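User: Sequence in, structure out. Go.
Assistant: Echoing your sequence, followed by the structure tokens.
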Amino acid sequence: MVEWLDPLLLARWQFGLTTLYHFLFVPLTIGMVILVAMFQTAWVRTAKPKYLHLTRLFGKIFLINFAMGVVTGIVQEFQFGMNWSDYSRFVGDVFGAPLAMEGLVAFFLEASMIGLWIFGWDKLSARLHLAVIWMLALSTTLSAYFILAANAFMQNPVGFELNEELGRAELTDIGAVLTNPVALAQFPHTIFASVMFAAVVIVAVAAYHLSKGQYLDEMRTALRFGLIVNIVAFAGVALTGDQLSLVMVETQPMKMASAEALYQTTAGASFSIFTWGTPDGSSELFSIRVPYLLSFLSTHDFMGTVEGINDLQAQYEQQFGPGDYTPIIWVTYWSFRWMIGLGALAAVVSVVGLWLTRGGRTPSGWAWKVAIWSAPLPLIASLVGWIFTEMGRQPWIVFGLMLTEDGVSPGVTGLEVLISLVAFTLIYGALAVVEFTLIIRAAVDGPKEWAKYDAALTGDDTDASTGSGTVDPAKLATIY
């Protein structure tokens, strides 16, 4: 068989690409709905049109992104049956429970609230309409939790018993699945990372319009808001990431060892910013290190012991039988650093942005360009973070229970997987063009389609984009 037609290899590529593509839309959906709810709260409380404009502008971006996320999420789930039928049969009884809850509870509530929010502007009172967007934010985060609980089972299987006769895991404790320590640690980390991305998107949109001298009051407010939220969210990412690392050491020590390419069990282990050496770790030619940091991240003790890859490999061979239980080290090593580095860089850009805009100052043109082009940083950090999470689990598809090579559909040929991979890639490429075109168009247009109503709302014939007037939210029904 031609190597590039290996069904397992192609199925892994297809699932990886489909999942990462779907995740392009997930963090913006989760983060943006929370920030839009904050803008709408500010409008209801202050009755200042600028907050209404920001609500409608970024609400539109949220809706575009939400629609695309739903489409790509549905296609992603098809792959469980197409390419991973043995895996689906093995975990279906457990995996299906949180996914069913996500669909029947969270997504149903999410879809209902999004309909009420879209069509309720002139039919619901301002406060009831505000409650709708907060319910939408709650249901979106709840949906994320159920999905993370399902993923956590793959990282740390709990709440099941193994049916040897049927060859599958059977659910015994849904409470244990939903309170999996991995899910409890992963959830806040994911939410804060999503808020970071939404915040820098707001910063980028504001920076574009401020560089053009447009909608100054709205965009100055949006800029400062996005910068502050991004810094606060990064602090949340760092704190929750620390807790996640402790859980990772407890449940998947090989993943932490591979994140540092630590081959020998070490007390007081250092953390390398950059290392150049041999692939098997036998020789280190050059390295920049922070002393004791890896031990602290792993155990909260600067002299704590971190298990090495070699000892863990020997332990797993004894426990699970002969085989290579080491993930691809260069992938885990560098994805872990790119995740941290890109997230930190986004926070640094926000700190500099706050300094440059202090006291109403207007920075130079280069600063606006940096703000705009730094928007993808948290998203890329999240993507490589998920690459680390999933690749660090290899060669297991369900840690300790099922190898990835045992989960692929036995009746699917490499050619069939290749055809679907090419088809999905072409379709997703076309959808990406549509998605980004619509979002960029909405961002570039700004709030101009609503600014013309300000004079009627405020009784002020001056420039509507200043946001200087106020309006009773009850008047909205006669205008929008």
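User: And one key feature?
Assistant: Residues 315 and 321 are 10 Å apart (CA to CA).
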